[in-house]
UniProtKB/TrEMBL annotation:
Signal peptide: none annotated. GO terms for molecular function: carboxy-lyase activity. This is Phenol acid carboxylase. It comes from the Eukaryota. Pfam families: PA_decarbox. InterPro entries: Calycin, PA_de_COase. Gene3D superfamilies: 2.40.128.20.
């Protein structure tokens, strides 16, 4: 039997609070980070929990600024009305896990950047809807091995939370992610 990858499996049913807590929620958040020279800077991210299987996002600050993307994602409710986890895999080979802390207005992430994505951040900029950008990103996944990763653990403060697309462009649920 041949399997198409990536695959997402969860043996936990999606909590019914998804519709109120997550579906169509749009967040703007800032990571307190630092530039390569050590000076403090903000890394602004924008996330739209588009559906129970997709996310749409844009990055406005930090080394990945200028990246506009959408992905297939899986969600897990940790505590209804309080904590949700969202996980996805990038076409660059980068693995992402995000925890949305609703009452404390925090995002906690672990991102396992592929060597290609981290070392060639400029090449990871662009919009997935542009075929040249999409193909270039796929090539970044081929640099290094599965263990050649830059592991980044960060927390961000949520600046805005609202329902709807904001400035992000909606996607077709069947749009390819790989």
């Amino acid at each position: 039997m041949s399997t198409s990858y990536p695959q997402f499996l969860s043996n936990t049913a999606l909590d019914p609070s998804f519709d109120e807590d997550i579906r169509d929620v749009h967040l703007l958040y800032d990571y307190n980070a630092q530039a390569p020279d050590g000076t403090p800077e903000k890394w602004r991210y924008e996330m739209w929990f588009f559906s129970d299987k997709r996310i749409v996002y844009a990055i406005h600050g930090g080394p990945m600024a200028g990246r506009i993307n959408y992905q297939t994602a899986s969600y897990q409710c940790i505590r209804p009305g309080e904590l949700w986890q969202c996980n996805w895999l990038e076409e660059t080979g980068t693995i992402c896990s995000l925890v949305y802390d609703i009452p404390n207005k925090k995002i906690t992430t672990l991102i396992g950047f592929s060597q290609g994505h981290w070392e060639h951040a400029e090449e990871a900029h662009g919009d997935k809807r542009n075929e040249d950008d999409f193909n270039r990103w796929r090539g970044l996944a081929k640099i290094g091995t599965q263990t050649d990763r830059f592991m980044l653990s960060e927390q961000a403060d949520i600046l805005e939370s609202f329902k709807g697309k904001g400035d992000l462009v909606p996607i077709d649920e069947s749009s390819p992610t790989f």
